[in-house]
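May I ask for a protein sequence together with how it folds?
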Amino acid sequence: MMFAIKNEYSVIKLLPHFCLFWLLTLSLVSNASANIKVNERLTSLFDKEWKSRLDDDPVSANSFGDLSEPSKLKDVSEDAYKGRLKTYQSFLEQLRAIPYQQLTAENKINFDIFEKQITYNISQIEFKTYQLPFLADSGFHTSMSWLPKQAKFTDLKSYKYYLDRLENIPQFFNQNITNMNAGLKRGYSMPVVVMNGFTEVIHKIANKEIKETDFWQPFKSLPKHFSAHDTKKLKDKAVKVIGQILLPSYKSLATYFEQEYIPSTKRSLGAYDFPNGAKYYQLEIAHYTTTNMTAKQIHALGLKEVARIKAEMKQIIKKVKFKGDFKEFLRFLRESPQFYAKTPEELLKEASYIAKKMDGQLPKFFTKLPRQPYTVEAVPEAIAPKYTTGRYVSAPLDSDRAGTYWVNTYALDKRPLYVLESLTLHEAVPGHHLQGSLNQELSNLPNFRRYSYISAFGEGWALYCEKLGLEAGFYKDPYSDFGRLSYEMWRAARLVIDTGIHAMGWSREQAIKLLADNSALSIHNITTEVDRYISWPGQALSYKIGELRILELRQQAELELGNKFDIRRFHDAILENGSIPLDVLSKQMHDFIQSAKK
């Protein structure tokens, strides 16, 4: 702006305006500077928390390239958890001292998610959930089998560090045993009904020959540049550590469970029977669904969804002109050899073919695809008997291994092919692998968001992807489509079962019957899954709650955008902000719709 000043009087008249202008300018600059500092404070806090997280868990730190503690395991002692509680409380205090309104829109989202995560972490320690460090199908004992894959073997030292870490496993087991004993004393333990066959996995590990264990894998093929002396020394040490320290600790652990823990564990099923159980379960509902729904509301929603899906299933039975009722059709599917693979290789090949077929369809539904590849493997033999039918196992972005889609090849006569399309779209692409890998590539996000997993979003997305398979050309076979509906029924029934068990006193038999009567899942799979819900309150609710929200958002976008609706842009928008709570997702998609309208 340029002023033409004709005389002194004009200058005097304009002085107040100049002063006001500069005061406003200084005020704006000052406020902008203050806002920058507030946002920098938040970013600094995120960095401090991330460093604390890695310092706290050396194995996780190693996977991110931090080798400062290459041989330690996480300290899970009571004192360590007391220290973590103080650290989390300090982070929360620092967070709440930051002026929220001065944050950028993106940092307000970061603030909200961070606050929820830290608050939840505090509540978990206050409830002492570390006294129950396992689920029906996995836990602290099975996590050790991952050490050979998580370690980075680059030189002689890295192999020695790995062996040192194996030597620390007995102490890690003992810390967990101490915690479990404390849980038993206050009535916080795993229900005895899900412990049937639990130690089978531990015995399988303990009774293997040294060179047949997962722990020996790194020594099968040592680098050729190692001297013969070093190679022999390493292998001799490995034989000693695995044979004399590690495997005996697994045997001792199995004995502990069989002779001490299982005879003393609780007989009731539900979380309501834990100390302060009702409050605990509501906390888990809020965490896993990211909603304020109550158990009663979720239970009613589940019953409604079960009825809707069953009506669709009956239409398929009519379509194939099956002569028999619903129950007889389920028996036909479960017992007909045509629906089952003859060998593990056949099942893995079929899963791989489905995954590759979906790879070819991805450009029709997304403009952004991850650069990280994935592979298809069998669930490790040691954990397969009690493990779920399939799972996705992520890998760090710069890892020398790919993401892994696990397929359970144990008990092949219980792994029907008619559900394999749904399973693959859920666990691999466009489900967990695609979403998780893209999440890791979001370099604009703080690390706590890049590497965190919000179940309602992640599982809701993966379940949505099963239905997306209809548009991608899958489920052409009516039996496969019935399998898709069985999987959707599976997730709808979880709303009924999880709330039924943990809030309403349901029995295991009631839960098994609901799934057996309404889905074509094998009975083995059903019992394994029900035991998982019993052992993991709240998590099973996330799938259907998340999927329904995404379907609502898509319906809203299609309705409001009409011929402007672009399925590729819609999916990009769903995934572009990473794993987020459902309320944040709704807000982001509202903004997407308004922007697309313009």
